[in-house]
Protein 1
Amino acid sequence: MVARGEIARFWSLESLHLVSSDGGTEPSALVDDNGSEEDLSYEDLCQASPRYLQPGGEQLAINELISDGNVVCAEALWDHVTMDDQELGFKAGDVIQVLEASNKDWWWGRSEDKEAWFPASFVRLRVNQEELSENSISTRSDEQDEEASQSRHRHCENKQQMRTNVIREIMDTERVYIKHLRDICEGYLRQCRKHTGMFTVAQLATIFGNIEDIYKFQRKFLKDLEKQYNKEEPHLSEIGSCFLQNQEGFAIYSEYCNNHPGACLELANLMKQGKYRHFFEACRLLQQMIDIAIDGFLLTPVQKICKYPLQLAELLKYTTQEHGDYSNIKAAYEAMKNVACLINERKRKLESIDKIARWQVSIVGWEGLDILDRSSELIHSGELTKITKQGKSQQRMFFLFDHQLVSCKKDLLRRDMLYYKGRLDMDEMELVDLGDGRDKDCNLSVKNAFKLVSRTTDEVYLFCAKKQEDKARWLQACADERRRVQEDQEMGMEISENQKKLAMLNAQKTGHGKSKGYNRCPVAPPHQSLHPIHQRHITMPTSVPQQQVFGLAEPKRKPSLFWHTFNRLTPFRK
């Protein structure tokens, strides 16, 4: 735990601003009193925080704090789903302790009891790295009333300073975010429109989406924040109403985030040609932008909308119930959390479809529609015994997706090869739990059994698990499947047909023929347990990022295959 007052600096990925432990902050110089940022130059920004706007500045600051013995924590912006032992998996909102940040793309950190690499772009560094001790304000004896009073006073001042830090981070990140949006609109989009021979209207719509609408909305939002910002005493600022008044406006991010995967693919195709790489770099230099490629700039709106609930949660933590802004901050946190949750859920599903497509092309004898035509998520998998109408037992491997249950048979010699045996439409099925004993429909004695009954044909499908615990997992999984289908319908969660087709096409191109099974899977790189401080030659993760569609701004890694064995499918579910 970091001792009070030891932290010399706080920062954030977007603002990269410098804040001292005594509450002083270097001026941002991004907007005037009216919330206008039109006169800002790159030099102005560098003068505001010269170290942190330069490449590597943030990593240098983090490592300085770590080397001084301070605990540095970050919060996950969204889920990081991984099958690689060298990578740290986490969910949105999880806290990760940063242990090493020398590499700008991949940091070494600890979550729970595991240490591993994780993508830096997936996290937000906490503004207040110091956690107040629960015992710092303890009950004192009558003789120590004065000392207790002084301690409470220090506690109150410290909490005010913590709130000041968060308020300043929100304001500073918002100002820098406006500059990033302006750089995209004026530095990239405006120049692209001038070069009609290089870009079609459709291409620009795909790459930039509704970024101009977001820029216009965020400028108004920043002006609202500036009006509520108390420059003299930031901890007294009441900004919660700004989020609530603009709550509906944040809905425009849904369109941008839905469009972003296609933007990444379109941009990746253009970047294969040297003239486009040179063009975008020239745009960056002409606009005097910081040293981030266009894919990084286009990712900032996705990061921003997911960062709001984390910022508001930290602000709420340091806002007393007596504060005039407490109720608004609490309501704003819930509202922005719901927005970010929807985006994070969509991103998780987009991560899933590539894996599911690669799984399907490995199945021998696949029949009928592609699995992605109706499904986008694997919920559960495992072995069950299927009992036929004639009373015969069939050992099968089952995969429960949203809307359908797929049955496969293992090869007798090569247990990693599966043959397609059929599927059931879960939308038409009713789940029935069976007690141990004789089942009247099949006239058989069963144990650890359940059945699915068709609502349209009344046909019965009987299944038996090896253990009671396995049966319980399947019952829960079937309930989860129905719940997730309903949630997807309520949230309007859909994956476009183009994205599904592209996932299948990419899976077929990887060389996983339907009859090849898994004999060509490369061996996973050995797990390296040594911390990079002690072993500087440690290698970075080499697997494909699980987050494909948001991944242009994520570090690039060599391609690898999907699952080494089907028994590892279960960690894929959330």
Protein 2
Amino acid sequence: MSWGSELWDQFDNLEKHTQWGIEFVEKYTKFVKERSEIETNYAKQIRNLSKKYQPKKNSREEEESKYTFCKAFLTTLNELNDYAGQHEVIAENLTSQIIAELTRYLTELKAERKSHFHDGRKAQQHIESSWKQLESCKRRFERDCKEADRAQQYFEKMDADINVTKADVEKRSSHKARQQAQMRHQMAADSKGDYSSYLQKFNQEQNEHYYTIIPNIFQKLQDMEERRIERIGVCMKTFSDVDRQVLPIVGKCLDGMTNAAESIEPKTDSKQVVESYKSGFEPPGDVEFEDYGQTMKRTASDTSLSNSREGKEKPAGKSKGKLWPFIKNKNKLSLKLITLNSQVRNLIEGSGPEDFSHLPPEQRRKKLQGKLDELNKDIQKEMDQRDALTKMKDVYVKNPQMGDPASVDPRLSEIGQNIEKLQFEVQKFEGWLAEVEERMPSKSDSHRRSGIYETQNNTTVSNNCAQDRESPDGSYTEEQNSETQVKANPNPNPNPNPNPNPTSSTPEFDDEFDDEETLPTIGTCKALYPFEGHNEGTISVAEGELLYVIEEDKGDGWTRVRRNEDEEGYVPTSYVEVFLEANAKDS
């Protein structure tokens, strides 16, 4: 496809496109420059780290150098220093092979583009000037024809009004009118000839303009654009080759570290300890018995073995050898707080993936909705700016002395690209939001759960019971005083895992839960997605894995499941498909 034959009337669009191509080269140059700076800073930090842990020049160094693990560490530091050097090589090659080349090429590209569009504008101005001259000849021919018609009509009128009494005078006037008419007709004929010849000339110039001059200019622009794209491709290949070139040396550095680690010999280091601290003396012999008489009693030494035993022997207190991960006391509370603190920290620090998949469903939905609102505001801002620039361009078109309308086009093009990018982001986040809303529990389920709590007494007791049912994601706290706990005990607790005194810290109470009975199974579930349970109280599951449900979601987004007798924990409800047994649903 040739630009000259297919895009003969798209001069302005080609001008915008080639300008965008130059801006892309500038953007890629900036990208490579920032990558080079990152490599330089990384190499500097690695060198500083290696230097920081180099052994100090003192007497201790000689002793440390005798151990194989110290030698291995020193070798690792030296190899790490060489490793940093390879990142400096990457930075240097990026600068010399890409940044410098693209900077020089940009200067040439801008000059070539400017020259081609200058020729194009010159050709357009020429054809427009020829068109104006053609219009001028046409108007002159039209004017002369009208004048000739008027002169002929005047002559015919004078010739028709001749009378006998004024014959001589009328003959002279008629003769002048005839001459005037003939002259006008001659002028009209000359104008017609000029118009015809210039029309033929203009058609030839116009044909040459649209079939020869403009196609040649556009072909040059097409060749220039293709060379630009090819140059970008070469630079991108060089970008990867720069890394690939240092891989052998980086591999040697890593091999050196591995060899250093494999050279560590624990037995040799143990022998070195003997060599370093061996005194060479023989152990002392038996102490001879000294009898000072039967009546004397030897005073026990403060360092005697019996005293030391007696001093060390103390009554052992009660200790527990196991801690259950799901007991109904403050261990579960700490589990909840740890998980909550981790999630709050993630929200504050802004960590996590772009789709907020690390958050619970409700928090994820809120974050996605907030992101959509921000994107829509940005789109509206860009559209307002585009409208303002469009109005400014209209003013420039109507009043050229105020500014060049073409100067606004690059910015309008940039704003259009920004709007397209933002709209793409909106579609992406809307898809994630729809996915979250499909997986969230229905409102009817939420109303059913809330109805259970509304039927309880409207006191602090019902509030405490509801708080006891929080998942590891909840915001449960231990700020309930003992008086409230006592009041809550007589009332029925809707929680299937009752905890009459979660703040009690007496050993006798804790022992009641060491032999807790295993919760019954109320159904099964199938993992829809993989989940890595990093936090305390959660359990990792694989996609498609079948598990037993032992505690249903209480409205907090978490379901308690069991893999076998020893493995159980919480998983996000949105990550599993639950199949409850009939009796569990009825209850």
